[in-house]
Amino acid sequence: MPSIHERIRDDLLSKERSLWTALTSADPAPEIEKLSNPEANLIFPETPILTLDGEPSLQHTLKPPFHHFDAFELSEVRVIIIDLMAGTVTYNINASRGKVHYRAMGSTTWSQGSDGEWRVVAHTETLR
Question: Does the predicted model carry a pTM greater than 0.90?
Fold first, then answer.
C-alpha cells in the first residue's frame, strides 16, 4: 500500500493534469471554477490577478480562445507536500496550437477541503 505522501503526490499530479486539461479546453472557465477554492487567485501572463468573484471576471478573462491548445506537456514536475491537506506542484509547460507555441513555468498550490476534494488556492504562470 502506498504511503500517505505517495497518495497525496498522485492526487496532486492528477488534479494538476485536470487543471491543464481545463485550461487548454475550448471553454475553460466553468471547469476552472469547479477546481478552485472560493478564495483562489490565478495569475496568468499579461492579465490582472483573477479571482472567482473579482473584476475582470474569470468568465470574461478565460473566454475562448484563452490557452486553447492542441497539445500540452508538463515537464520537470515537482510536488511539494506542505502538509496532509496542502501541496504545491511546480513545472515547465510546453503547449502548442498549430504554429503558435507557449512556454512557461507554472506553479499551483492546492488545498483539500472538508469534502476531501483538492482545490486550487493559487495558480501562477511565468513566460520563459
Answer: yes
